[in-house]
Amino acid sequence: MAIFRLSPAFKDYLWGGTRLRDDFGKQCDFEKIAESWELSCHKDGASVVADGEDKGLTLAQYIEKHGKGVLGTDCEKFENFPILIKLIDAKDNLSVQVHPDNEYAQRVEGEYGKTEMWYIVDCDEGAELLYGFKSEISKDEFASRIADNTLLEVTQSVPVHKGDVFFIEAGTLHAIGKGILIAEIQQNSNTTYRIYDYGRVGKDGKPRELHVEKAKDVTTLAPAKQYPETPIEQKDGFTQKLMASCEYFTTYVLDIDSKAVLSADDKSFNSILVLEGEGDIGGIPFRKGDSVFITAGTGEYAVNGKCKAILTKV
Q1: Rounded to an integer, what distance in angstroms lies between the CA atom of residue 102 and that of residue 261?
Q2: Where residue 200 falls among pLDDT bands split at 50, 70, 90?
Q3: For the segment 204-243, what is each residue's pLDDT rounded down to a tens digit?
Q4: Where are the alpha helices (H) located in 1-148, listed in sequence order?
Q5: Which residues of 174-212 are buried (b: 16+ CB within 10 A; e: fewer)?
Q6: Which residues are catalytic?
């Protein structure tokens, strides 16, 4: 039973900005911080234990040392750690992209597919994202619109506001628009198929790689399936709202007035990602932007302080 903060891995993709440093206090040498991987056991960027006797271990090393029991019984069905949680600062538009499902990804890429959800932490006025198609289209039309650069004529642009939630099943065409700061809870995967990238070039001066043929294999050519709206639950000292629940993760947004008593039972670890405010969890101090890991079997624990946070479990 343990509670500790995690230090993230960082990515400096060309569309990133500086808000994760300026607003969330992330310490990184990159000029741009596009993403911070706050809860990750992925080979492309591991989060690191920041507190206690295991400080300096990656989360994967911590799990190896203490056993998979720290993840809970609901994680036993997964060969690998099931979740990856990020903060994403889109200073510019991300590419139009899609993620494969488990069957395709494991067969073609050797890792999980990617179902994910987005919580809009903040956004510029008028910001939009791309979310599926306006209506169903055929595979032939999809292919021809990719070829003649008219794909955006049939995709669905959605205005966004702070606090909005989007559930993105594997196969859903999507793109984060410029001026949006997102908390992303996703399967533990880094497989992305770019379809359209606005003609941009990478650090090497060459156009970034597209993955059109794979995208044709996996894209659902229809409007996106939004997760049903759920009610806000009034708890003792805080409110809780379910954002999404699927096989891989269940995630809530919490608004805590002064104290919230939560529980990490034997079924799953808890992850707390702090979006606003400060306080402590079991004596471990936190501030805006911190990621806190609570091992399965810890039982009841208190989040003390006025804050907004995302709670994720399996």
Answers
A1: 35
A2: confident
A3: 888 888 999 999 999 999 999 988 999 999 999 999 999 9
A4: 19-22, 59-66, 102-108, 139-147
A5: bbbbbbbbbbbbbbbbbbebbbbbeeeeeeeeeebebbe
A6: 194
In a domain, 102, yes or no: yes
On whether both 204 and 253 belong to a single domain, the answer is no
Q: For the segment 59-104, what is each residue's pLDDT rounded down to a tens digit? A: 999 999 999 999 999 999 999 999 999 999 999 999 999 999 999 9
What is the spatial distance between Cα 40 and Cα 27, in angstroms, rounded to a whole number? 17
Are 121 and 182 a contacting pair, CB within 8 Å? yes
Residues 111/149, Cβ–Cβ less than 8 Å: no
Which pair of structure tokens corresponds to residue 171?
A: 């196969």
Tokens of 105: 């990804």
| Any domain includes 86 | yes
Quote the CA–CA distance of 18 and 24 in Å, as a whole number: 10
Q: Residues 250, 130: one domain?
A: no
Residue 215 one-letter amino acid: A
Q: Taking the complete model, does pTM exceed 0.85, yes or no?
A: yes
